[in-house]
Structure formats: structure tokens, C-alpha cells
Design brief:
single chain, alpha/beta, seven-stranded parallel β-sheet, six-stranded parallel β-sheet
Length: about 375
């Protein structure tokens, strides 16, 4: 079977952390002549246009974990409808394989693949198998992993360590070597939808109390939730700091390339982009992430000296102010962390994942 005769369904949604790897894989498969279809939930309009050469479908899905009883019941009802919709879509398409990228948005189509006996490939981004993938795991022909060791993989299920596919613009940053700071020090801060609020509270007072000679050098780019922007702007007002605030930056790759230090959470896609690009980071895992997966994600890079780890209870303005002073005054520490991070990167992740998907689709 040649690649042009193969049809692959990708299913993802919810956040960019799930959709961006699917987008990268879609580009790789399409370039090889494979026909790709994308199934997401009904919130997927925010990612419309990212799969221009793929037919897109929307199905119902609902968040279940951590919800009160009535909302759980409603989520199960929506999932049931979404599974029925997915069965109809997959029966029509007759794909050779379905690739699910985790999260509840990918659950209906992934579950439907199991019902229809279509080979299912799951991509697990975290160091602990996520809730949706845990339910689906025993049905999977293959689980592709981001980390070399992943907890809660069902016994007997085949795995392959592929890493996380990153966007081409992030791959391009890898070719730009990390440059130690000169007169200016570029600090890039992003926290994602779940993580930015803590940064909005802690980071401004930490940076405002820095010595004037350091504040003059700092160029701060900080991603904030829309509802936090007024308070964060007020916190920086009159500080003498140069700050660029926004809920979202469309040129994140360029900003990452220029960054001398990144402050971020420990989502798998963030760690993959940092290590692929080879940029040093201070990583603050979300305290109550399921199965402490963010802490375990962060430990992978921190134990290999590619990042600095600070657990959330210790992330205070005093801690951060002292840490920034230490890193700015000893730039070699940052250069070493950048080099170690780059060693952990898997720039060929999309090629590895595509090869594993096509191999499974061919039944070889």
C-alpha cells in the first residue's frame, strides 16, 4: 500500500497543546501524499484553517473530570452523541487508522475507532497517561509517547518514543544558537490558559523590586489572561520596566528565539518547544495537575540540567527576584542550560510519529 492510498483521521481539540502537534503531523502526512481528515469538538472553530488540506468535522464532546454530578452526566450525554457522530463519519471515510491526541475533545472519534476495529494510535504528551487515553489505552494499536518513560501504560500495549511534533517556526529557532545577553536581557513569560494567573500575581512585584541597573536591562514579554491585563498593567506602572503584555502573541517563535530566559508552566508541548529550540527556562508546574504530571514533566528536563524547577508553593516574588538576579549575574548558567535543553530536544519528532502512524496504518 502506497502512502497516497492511505487515509488517516486525526482527532484533537481543546487547547493548542493538543492541536499544534496534530497540525504538524497533518502537514507531514499530507506532504507524503496521505489523505488526512481532522475531527474535533464543537469548540474547534478557534483552530479553523490550520488544516487547509484536510476535511474537517465537528462532533459533540464534554469535559468530565473534576465536574459536579449533573455536569458529569451532561458530559457523558454529549460524549455519547459525539461517539455516534464519529461512528457515522468513520464508517463513511473508512480510514486506515485514527490518531488521537488526548483530551476529551479527541475521545469520541478515538472511542468510535475501537468500536469499528480501526487501528487506533494514541499520542500521549505527558509523563503519566492522561485520563482519556487511560480509558482508550487498551484499545490502542500503538501509544506514541513524549517522554522515554510514561506511567500507567496498559500492559501489553505497544509504545514508541517519538516526542512531540512542534510547529515549523519553532524548529527554525533550533538553527539559531542561544546568545548570552548583552546590554538587554529578554525575559519571555507564558503560562497557558490554566497557568497564567499565578504569573500575573507573582511576577510583576518580583520584577519591580529588582535593582535599577537590572531593570534598565530587562525587556519583558508576558502573556496574561484578558481578565488579568488591567491589574498586571497597573502593577508595572511607574516601575521603569519595559513590558509588552498580551493575551496571545502570534509571533511566539520569534520571541522565543530572542529570549535569554523563559518562565513557563510544565505542559508537554512547552517543554518540547523549549528543548527543540534550546532555550533555558524557569519552570513552575501547576500544583494540582492530574497525577502530578506537570511536576513529572518538569523533572525530566530539570534533572538533565536543561531548566530550573520551582514548585508552585515556593514561587514567590522574593524567590523570583533573587533567582533573576542570580541568573543575570551568572550568564554561563543560562548558556549551559540552553545547551542541555537542546540535547534533550527531538527535532525529528514529527518524522518519527508519521512513520509510526503509516506503519500501523499499513498493518506492518
Amino acid at each position: 500500500m502506497n502512502e497516497s492510498a492511505i487515509q488517516i483521521v486525526l482527532t484533537a481539540g481543546g487547547t493548542g497543546g493538543h492541536v499544534f502537534p496534530a497540525e504538524a503531523l497533518a502537514r507531514e502526512l499530507t506532504a507524503a501524499g496521505t489523505k488526512v481528515t481532522f475531527i474535533t469538538d464543537r469548540r474547534g472553530n478557534s483552530f479553523s484553517g490550520r488544516f487547509p488540506e484536510s476535511k474537517e468535522y465537528r462532533v459533540f464532546a464534554g469535559a468530565y473530570a473534576g465536574k459536579p454530578f449533573l455536569k458529569k452526566f451532561w458530559a457523558l450525554f454529549l460524549m455519547g452523541i459525539g461517539i455516534l457522530q464519529s461512528i457515522l463519519i468513520l464508517s463513511k471515510i473508512k480510514p486506515n487508522a485514527v490518531v488521537g491526541f488526548g483530551g476529551y475533545a479527541a475521545f469520541p472519534a478515538s472511542f468510535a475507532a475501537g468500536i469499528l476495529k480501526i487501528p487506533l494510535i494514541l499520542h500521549e504528551q505527558n509523563s503519566v497517561l492522561g485520563g482519556a487515553n487511560r480509558v482508550l489505552g487498551k484499545r490502542a494499536a500503538l501509544i506514541a509517547t513524549t517522554f522515554p518513560d510514561v506511567e500507567r501504560i496498559p500492559e501489553g500495549v505497544k509504545t514508541e518514543y517519538t516526542g512531540v511534533p512542534v510547529r515549523p517556526e519553532i524548529l527554525a529557532v533550533r538553527a539559531q544558537s542561544y546568545q548570552p545577553a548583552g546590554e538587554t536581557f529578554n525575559l519571555l513569560i507564558f503560562g497557558g490558559s490554566q497557568g497564567a494567573s499565578l504569573f500575573s500575581r507573582v511576577i510583576p512585584p518580583a520584577l519591580v523590586q529588582l535593582p535599577e541597573e537590572i531593570k534598565k536591562r530587562l525587556r519583558i514579554v508576558q502573556q496574561c489572561r484578558t481578565e488579568d491585563l488591567p491589574a498586571v498593567r497597573q502593577a508595572y506602572d511607574g516601575s521603569g520596566l519595559t513590558v509588552d503584555l498580551a493575551p496571545f502573541f502570534t509571533d511566539m517563535a520569534d520571541r522565543l528565539a530572542r529570549a535569554h530566559l523563559v518562565i513557563c508552566r510544565a505542559g508537554a508541548s512547552s517543554i518540547a518547544e523549549l528543548s527543540t529550540a534550546g532555550r533555558p527556562a524557569l519552570i513552575v508546574p501547576i500544583l494540582r495537575s492530574p497525577d502530578s504530571h506537570q511536576l513529572k514533566n518538569a523533572l525530566f528536563i530539570a534533572k538533565n540540567n536543561g531548566a530550573f524547577l520551582c514548585e508552585e508553593p515556593d514561587f514567590t516574588p522574593e524567590y523570583l527576584s533573587n533567582k533573576i538576579k542570580e541568573l543575570i549575574n551568572t550568564p554561563q548558567i543560562l548558556t549551559t542550560a540552553a545547551e542541555k535543553a537542546k540535547e534533550l530536544g527531538k527535532p525529528d519528532a514529527v518524522h518519527l510519529l508519521a512513520a509510526a502512524v503509516l506503519k500501523t496504518a499499513r498493518g506492518s
